[in-house]
Design brief:
This protein is of the alpha/beta class. The protein has two domains: 217 residues, Spore Coat Polysaccharide Biosynthesis Protein SpsA, Chain A, CATH 3.90.550; 70 residues, no CATH class. It is built from eleven helices and nine strands. Strand 1, helix 1 and strand 2 form a beta-alpha-beta unit. The N and C termini lie far apart (44 Å).
Length: 299
Amino acid sequence: MKSEMKKVAILLAAYNGERYIAEQLDSILAQTCVSVHIFISVDKSSDQTLKILNNLDSGNVTILPYGNRYGNAARNFYRLIQDVDFSDYDFIGFSDQDDRWKSDKLSRGIDLIEKTDSDAYSSNVTAFWENGRSKEIIKSQPQKKWDHFFEAAGPGCTYLFRTENFTQFKEFYKKNQKEISAITHHDWLIYAWYRASGFTWLIDENSSMFYRQHGSNELGANKGIKQKINRIKRIKNKNFRAEVLKISKLIHRQKLPTPPGIVESGGGNVAFFLKNFNQTRRKPVEAFFLAFCAVIGIY
């Protein structure tokens, strides 16, 4: 596939990223067939991240004013969305600080958005570990009617948006900043808002990047026994349900389509999941598991 030289603004949230951020930036600046500019927000760090960035010799990188503590990746990304003027760019993308992008990540995404007349894009990724192990993480199962209220469209670092409708999300953020700041999964919220607003979202079945796994990952690939146990804990301690409710209430308040009764039932009850479980997650086994958790009372 070939794309014209589109201008792409990449929003990169960093925190204590000295080990890998230079390698990540190299992979972004090496993107083919696009013109890239990277905007970086550094959460107040205790390592050499800022020094590394200040020593960069590139006119295609802008570091936002430093000194604030955001506390998590979501609030750092919200800061980028609010403060960066991306009106002169054709597309907006997100980046983490520690991955490696395939050289055609952006050009392929743009080509698919334009070819399918989609509004936003995400993709599968290839998770990799420092011991050399790798595994493809599949997020491209068919989208369901309500999946956007129960999961993101894959890792946010794969997201790519047309500027015109992402600007609408920026206005939505500005109007609801207080409520949105309490939502800890920015990628999930954005996917929910796009889908509820009637925008089309393409999830690419191809992997666009190498998704680094290490002890500092905020979420990671969610693979393995330990990660499955952590996922069950998140459901059992009601963190997952609380996030569903916060997103649902915010979308509902905008008079956008929400699952019937989900706000009234505080994020979903047994009756809701028995009726709609096959529409709550893209992967059938995960939809069934979520319904099972509701039935046995741990959701």
